[in-house]
Each structure stands twice: as C-alpha cells, then as structure tokens.
Known about the structure:
Residues 4-198 form the N-acetyltransferase domain. By secondary structure, this protein is α+β, with helices and mostly antiparallel strands.
Amino acid sequence: MSEIVIKELVKKDLDKVSEFASLGMGFDQYTENKLALKMYSRYVALSELAKSTLAIGAYMDNRLVGFIFARLDGQRKVQLNVGDKLLVKLLDSTIEKLDWTGLTKKYNAINQDMLSQLPEKSREITFFAVDPTITGRGIGTTLINTAEKYLHGPTYVLTDSNCNYQFYLHRGFKIFAQNDLKLEDDSPLTCYVLTKRL
Length: 198
C-alpha cells in the first residue's frame, strides 16, 4: 500500500481540488451543464484558496488524494496568479447576475448571521475534501490533524447538509449554529457553523 505524504499543495493540482470538491459537495445537484459545473467548481476552489493561509495536499504516489485549506488571522494569504484572480472576479459578478431566485444571497446571509454570533473567528477550515474513490486510508484524519497543529485554538467550519459534515462531528466538532434554507426545487438544505478548540 502506498504511503500518504502531506505537503504544500502543488498549484497544478487545482483541477483535482475542483473535482474532489464538486463530488464531495454535490455541485452536480445544481446544474446538468458540464462546463458550468467545471467552472463553478474551479471558482469555489480558487475563492477558498484566496482567503486561506494554509493549503496542503495529501499525496499517494505523487497523486493528489485530498486537500485542506485553512485561514489563520495574521498569516500571509496564499497568492493567486493574475489569471486566477480575474476568473474569480468575473465569476463573482456572473453568479451575482444569474442569482435570479436570490438563493446565493440567502445562503450567504444565513452564514453571515450565524457567524455574527460566533465570538472567535480568527481560525477557519476554509475548504476540505478527499478523493471519494479512496476510503479507509485515514486521508481525511491525517489532513485534519495537520491543520489542527497549524490552527491550534478555537476553530470554525462553515458547511451544509450537502457536504459530509458528519466527518467533523466524529472528529469532535460541535454544532454552534444551524439554519435551514429551501433550494429551488423545494428540497431542504441546512447550513452549519461547527466549532472546536484544536
């Protein structure tokens, strides 16, 4: 069995980051358009990377099998190249214009409202996913353990019921706040702020 190596994320692996995130967060529930799905997944990956101060990957045989991004106030943020910055800006404005139902605004407002109740916001796990085809190898646990050493203090995660939030609960995170939202097809979505002192 191959050994898991934890190291700084290699930027060329952002396509894999987007792919794992799309699968793990169920982005395909929102569109059947493959190009839109790919662009949105890339946008989310870049947006989260831009606000992070830590970006590490788990590698097996030099192949990315998982990643975690985190933010610690006072540390230097990961730098995006000019093309990626432009893509994020372009997609920010496009998503805002295409948000006919106001769902994105509602989702963001719910999260901001929950975060406003949180007394300590200097440490955050911003983005985290593992290759869904590999299970039982402890990849997620290894990544979380590495992030814990970096963050070392009260930490929060913004997540929702379309993601595998139960993983965090098994790792000792507690639900600090939750709020429900209806998606365009009337299916429910629960937004969470999870917290833990690492």
